[in-house]
């Protein structure tokens, strides 16, 4: 291969040109895949791999899912593997938990996690606690998934982020994907995990395409639960986020780079268990920290990160207080202009970074 590359670099022979063309043909191009299709691929691959896996929820079968995330799965796997349910979250979540206790591996879709409030007793008191209360004899391998957080124009009762709610509870693993790679790798990991897992998707990200490498396209690709990813290396300040705000942080970092401010952006990926080691290592390097989330500020994910940093060795490396960027501490308004002011925007992240660095 080294000899081939040397030959290609000369650019002097027809043979070299021919090899160049063949080399590019044999190198798979990155594929553009939406978050919706990445989730669909993950479920398709796991349904095919393990006959114990099945999907249930409102409109997931014949209608192909309220957001078309389960498109084509009912036609491929049939009624026993992809099941439409009545509009009763408490009922079908309970069925799913019982099926998991009996040895199956259900994927339970909530049309939105706001509706999971109807089933929170099943999620917390049954799914999260049974393995512990049975002294390890009864595992509950179940995935609760669906859109989480604010969407657009759906007002207060449909715009809550449940990352902090569910991450508060021992016995659950809580995942929050941003892009297509996260969506596919984390969902596959969740389905294979022997514990109850909450997968908090974002409705506004479903139709957004991302490049997937050859590695991610593999059926064997899985993202380890509990491991964050550095999306953009930097040296002056650490910015930590999860879900859709990760994209806002990268955009803000690119704007700040033009002003000579070098941000390191960390995609949290997993809320519980939290990869505090990656955050600490970054803070030791940059000496500054900003957290970004769409949820409310009080007792939020950013608040937990602040506490962990203060209690750990990285605290001694901070040159300024940690700054939190969060959703507004109000029920979500319906009006578009008010809604935009309640959700972290790129300008808010830029302001937070400059304030933390004492530049304003």
TrEMBL record:
EC number(s) given by UniProt: 1.2.4.1
Reactions listed under catalytic activity: N(6)-[(R)-lipoyl]-L-lysyl-[protein] + pyruvate + H(+) = N(6)-[(R)-S(8)-acetyldihydrolipoyl]-L-lysyl-[protein] + CO2
Alphabetized InterPro entries for the sequence: PDHB_mito-type (IPR027110), THDP-binding (IPR029061), Transketo_C/PFOR_II (IPR009014), Transketolase-like_Pyr-bd (IPR005475), Transketolase_C (IPR033248)
Source taxon at top rank: Eukaryota
Domain Transketolase-like pyrimidine-binding per the UniProt entry, residue ranges: 33-208
Pfam families per record: Transket_pyr, Transketolase_C
4Fe-4S listed as a keyword: no
Cofactor(s), names only, from the UniProt record: thiamine diphosphate
Family matches, as CDD domains: TPP_PYR_E1-PDHc-beta_like
Key words of the record: Carbohydrate metabolism, Glucose metabolism, Oxidoreductase, Pyruvate, Thiamine pyrophosphate
Described purpose of this protein according to its UniProt entry: The pyruvate dehydrogenase complex catalyzes the overall conversion of pyruvate to acetyl-CoA and CO2.
Subunit structure: Heterotetramer of two PDHA1 and two PDHB subunits. The heterotetramer interacts with DLAT, and is part of the multimeric pyruvate dehydrogenase complex that contains multiple copies of pyruvate dehydrogenase (E1), dihydrolipoamide acetyltransferase (DLAT, E2) and lipoamide dehydrogenase (DLD, E3). These subunits are bound to an inner core composed of about 48 DLAT and 12 PDHX molecules. Interacts with DLAT.
Protein name per UniProt: Pyruvate dehydrogenase E1 component subunit beta
Organism taxonomic ancestry: Eukaryota, Metazoa, Chordata, Craniata, Vertebrata
């Amino acid at each position: 291969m080294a000899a081939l590359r040397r030959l290609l670099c000369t650019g002097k022979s027809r043979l070299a040109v021919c090899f160049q063309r063949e080399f590019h043909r044999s190198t798979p191009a990155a594929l553009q895949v939406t978050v919706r299709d990445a989730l669909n691929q993950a479920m398709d691959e796991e349904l095919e791999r393990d006959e114990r896996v099945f999907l249930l929820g409102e409109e997931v079968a014949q209608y192909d899912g309220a957001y078309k995330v389960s498109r084509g799965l009912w036609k491929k796997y049939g009624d026993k593997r992809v099941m439409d349910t009545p509009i009763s979250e408490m009922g079908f979540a309970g069925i799913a938990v019982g099926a998991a206790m009996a040895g199956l591996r259900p994927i339970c879709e909530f049309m939105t996690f706001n509706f999971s409030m109807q089933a929170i007793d099943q999620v917390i008191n049954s799914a999260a606690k049974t393995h512990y209360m049975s002294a390890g004899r009864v595992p509950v391998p179940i995935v609760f998934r669906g859109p989480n957080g604010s969407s657009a124009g759906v007002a207060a009762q449909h715009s809550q982020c449940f990352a902090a709610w569910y991450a508060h509870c021992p016995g659950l693993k809580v995942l929050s994907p941003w892009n297509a790679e996260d969506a596919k790798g984390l969902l596959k990991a969740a389905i294979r995990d022997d514990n109850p897992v909450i997968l908090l998707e974002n409705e506004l990200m479903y139709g957004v395409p991302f490049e997937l490498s050859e590695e991610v396209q593999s059926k064997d690709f899985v993202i380890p639960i509990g491991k964050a990813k550095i999306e953009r290396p930097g040296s002056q300040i650490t910015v930590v986020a999860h879900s859709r705000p990760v994209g806002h942080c990268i955009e803000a970092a690119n704007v700040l780079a033009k002003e000579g401010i070098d941000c390191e952006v960390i995609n949290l990926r997993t809320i519980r268990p939290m990869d505090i080691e990656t955050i600490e290592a970054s803070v030791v390097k940059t000496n500054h920290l900003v957290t970004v989330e769409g949820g409310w500020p009080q007792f939020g994910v950013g608040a937990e990160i602040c506490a962990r940093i203060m209690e750990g060795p990285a605290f001694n490396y901070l040159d300024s207080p940690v700054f939190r960027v969060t959703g507004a501490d109000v029920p979500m308004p319906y009006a578009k202009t008010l809604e935009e002011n309640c959700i972290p925007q790129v300008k808010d992240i830029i302001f937070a970074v400059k304030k933390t660095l004492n530049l304003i």
